[in-house]
Amino acid sequence: MGDTYYIIDRLCTSRFRKALLMLVAMILPAMSVLHAQVTVNAKLDSVQFFVGQQDGLELQVTMPVGKTLQLPPFKKGMEIIPDVEIVDMDAPDTVHMNDGKMLQVTQRYIITAWDSSFYYLPPFAVKVDTTIYESKSLAFKVYTLDVDTLNADNFFPPRDIEQLGTSWEDWKGICYALLLIPVLVGIILLLNYLIKRGKPIFRIIRRKKKLPAHQVAISEIERIKEQRTWAKEDSKEYYTLLTDTLRTYIQDRYGFSAMEMTSTEIIERLMQDTDQKSLAELREIFRTADLVKFAKWTTQINENDANLMAALQYVNETKVEEDPNAQPEPEVVKETDKTRQIQVNIMRGLIGLTLLGIVIIIGAIAMRLYEMYY
Questions:
Q1: pTM surpassing 0.85?
Q2: Which residue among 17, 157, 197, 202 has the highest number of C-beta atoms inside a 10 angstrom radius?
Q3: Residue 277 maps to a domain
Q4: Dihedral of the CA atoms 45, 48, 54, 55 (nearest 10)?
């Protein structure tokens, strides 16, 4: 047993100790080199300034590329130490070095102090991967500004109030507003005129496909035919409806004012465009109608039916087929009392809004002039 202890003791004191020392000698330089690759520096732009004055604090970290860096968790408005506040901070600035093998990260802070004193800033700690590195500590002095209360005017002498001149920029808005007032007054006068004259501010227009003249005439003749009692009881009314239908058709078909012309004038005008056979039938219808209306001529039922069929035949012989490419004609919708009242209410509302706009513009001009001269 004693021999065994002797052997172990010899190993521990000779070979084992030698190997351990060699291993430590190999590891320590490597760790030293790795640690030397990361440096943390902190510096101040100035080590002394007055209370409330701002100073620059720069934190610079140099490390190998590929490492993960975690800077101190400072924020804007945060106090590093009591009475020393971070006023602002820039984004970290990164620069590659040594052919891209090293990385230099610079973080800049703007600090200030709110009391006169000597301040000590402890080392700033950063974390590279899992290792924490620290900068050196910093110190600075903050001074107060002595005020000579007995001779205050010597430091900040009072100044007289200076009258600043005006420019086009000062008057530009006022001029534009003044030009706008007559325009608004004109709108009020126009709307008031439309209300008094009963003029609408808008019209409803819709496009409606107009029926051909011959279709309108045939439809009206068919209606007269269905109400045969007129032919028996009142021939004058019967022939008045029939000839008015023909006059309307001729006016739309040939484009002259047949409603304002006598029967003879219509026949003479149509002799330029219509064959004599059709005119003969039309002439007989107008002759019979004139006798009934002006000479109290009495007609027979079969004669009335014959004239009705002759009128229908005349329309069919002289009709013009509808153009399939014809565009619908615009039609102005007649204004009713209800729509008229709605338009009047709208115009009165516009007058009220325009008056309000004028008042607002005048008030804005007055406020601007007051700011400029008082």
A1: no
A2: 17
A3: yes
A4: 20
